[in-house]
Amino acid sequence: MSGKYESGRILTLDAVSAEHGVSRSVAREAVRVLESMGMVASRRRVGITVQPAESWNVFDPVVIRWRLEVGDRKAQLVSLSELRVGFEPAAAALAARRASPHQCRVMAAAVSDMMVHGRSGDLAAYLLADRLFHQTLLEASGNEMFRALNGVVAELLTGRTHHGMMPEKPNITAIALHDEVARAIRMGEHEQAERGMRAIIEESASAIVEEVPPTTTSPKTTTSLKTTTSPKTTTSPKSPAAEEH
Fold first, then answer.
1. CA 165 – CA 217 distance, rounded (Å)
2. Given this model, what pLDDT does residue 228 score?
3. Angstrom distance (rounded) from CA 106 to CA 182
4. What whole-number distance in Å separates Cα of residue 13 and Cα of residue 232?
5. Cβ distance 130 to 157 under 8 Å?
6. Among 36, 131, 202, 244, which one is most buried in terms of CB atoms within 10 A?
C-alpha cells in the first residue's frame, strides 16, 4: 500500500526476512496474513508475487484500516459510505422486526451515551457508543451476512475519528437520527427505521465530502509487506439496562 513494492514484483522469503530483520518464521507468517488478504500470492519455485489492488480483500477490516492510513482517504470513506447505503438501512428494517428487548435497551443506552459524550466532546467514548449502536443493530437484524459486515462499519467509524475527520463535538442532528432509529426499532416501525438509517449514512457521507481534505498519497496498485497481528475479537462493552420510555 505504501508503494514500496509494486504490483507484479516477485520477492523471496529470504529477501523479505533479511530486509525487515526478522526470522524466516516471522516473515512466513506475515506473508501468510497478507496472502489471506489477497495482497500477495505465494507459489513454490516462483516466490511471493505482489498483487494489484483489484485482488485485495477490501472487506477485511485490516485492509480498510491500512487504506485509510496511506491511501486516498476521502475516496475510501466515500466508497465505504456507498457500501453502507446498500445494507444498513435494510438491516435496520429487519431489526425492527426481530430485535430482542435486550438489544433495544442496548441501542437506547448507546444513544444516551452518545448524547453525554457528544456534549462533553469526548470523541473516544463517543466512538465506543457509536460502534456499539451499529454493532447491535446489525446483530439485531438476525441476518448473519449483515452481522459479518460489522467490521466494515466499525473501521469506518474508527478511521473517521482517529484521522481527525470528526468535529470537536459531534453533530446533534446525527445523534438525534440515531435516537430516531433506536425508537423505530423498539416500536417495530420498520419503514421508519430504514429511512432513519439512510438519513444517518447520508448525513455522515455529506460531512465527509465537505470536510475531508485530499490526502497527499494517491492510491496505487501496490502493497507493503509490513503487517501486524490481526486484531483479536473483543467483547463489546456491556450497556446499562436502560429503561424504555
1. 17
2. 41
3. 9
4. 26
5. yes
6. 131
CATH numbers and ranges of domains, the chain = 5-57 (1.10.10.10), 61-211 (1.20.120.530)
Distance set, CA 160 to CA 1, 66, 77, 143, 177 (Å)? 19, 13, 8, 26, 18
Dihedral angle, C-alpha 152, 156, 158, 164, nearest 10 °: 170
pLDDT along the chain (245 residues), means of 10: 78 88 92 92 89 91 89 85 96 99 99 96 95 99 97 92 79 95 98 98 76 44 43 41 41
What are the cell numbers at 55? 485482488
What length is written for the chain?
Answer: 245
Residue type, 154: A
pLDDT at 245: 41
Radius of gyration of the chain from its Cα atoms, rounded to whole angstroms:
20
d(CA 88, CA 67) in angstroms, rounded, equals 22
